[in-house]
């Protein structure tokens, strides 16, 4: 992930000690290269950043890894 232009941890008031929830599409096949996603912290901060899966190949590799990790835990 990458912060949006003009934003960084300091401007967003992030310390690095937060727990983050990354909000990806509920249907993993809807993930697109370079899409914007919302991140929330355990301190109730929310911000938008860019998903750094920059190509369809990277997205496919990510999806395959997620599917494999789920099936490994069943």
Walkthrough of the structure:
InterPro entries: Aconitase/3IPM_dehydase_swvl (IPR015928), Aconitase/IRP2 (IPR006249). The chain has one domain (2-72). The protein is α+β, with helices and mostly antiparallel strands. The protein is built from 2 helices and 4 strands; from the N terminus they run βαβββα. The protein has a 4-stranded antiparallel β-sheet, with no helix packed on it. The chain has helices at 9-12, 56-72; strands at 2-3, 20-23, 36-41, 46-50.
Task: Kindly summarize this structure in a few lines.
By secondary structure, the chain is an alpha+beta fold. 28% of the residues lie in helices and 23% in strands. A 4-stranded antiparallel β-sheet has the order 1-4-3-2, with no helix packed on it.
Q: Termini distance?
A: 28 Å
The largest sheet is: 4 strands, antiparallel
The ordered H/E elements are EHEEEH
Q: Which stretches are low in confidence, meaning pLDDT under 50 for 5 or more residues running?
A: none
| Dominant shape | globular
- Structurally, the number of domains stands at 1
Structural class: alpha+beta
- Binned, the helix content reads 25-40%
Strand order of the largest sheet: 1-4-3-2
Strand content: 15-25%
Number of strands: 4
Radius of gyration: 14 Å
Number of helices in the DSSP assignment: 2
Which helices and strands, and how do they pair?
Blueprint (H helix, E strand, L loop, with lengths): L1 E2 L5 H4 L7 E4 L12 E6 L4 E5 L5 H17 L2
Antiparallel strand pairs: 1-4, 2-3, 3-4
């Amino acid at each position: 992930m990458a912060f949006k232009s003009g934003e960084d941890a300091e401007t967003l008031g992030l310390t690095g000690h937060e727990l983050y929830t990354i909000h990806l599409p509920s249907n993993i096949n809807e993930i697109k290269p370079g899409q914007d996603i919302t991140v929330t912290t355990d301190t109730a901060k929310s911000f938008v950043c860019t998903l750094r899966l920059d190509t369809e190949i990277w997205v496919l590799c990510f999806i395959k890894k997620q599917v494999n990790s789920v099936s490994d835990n069943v």
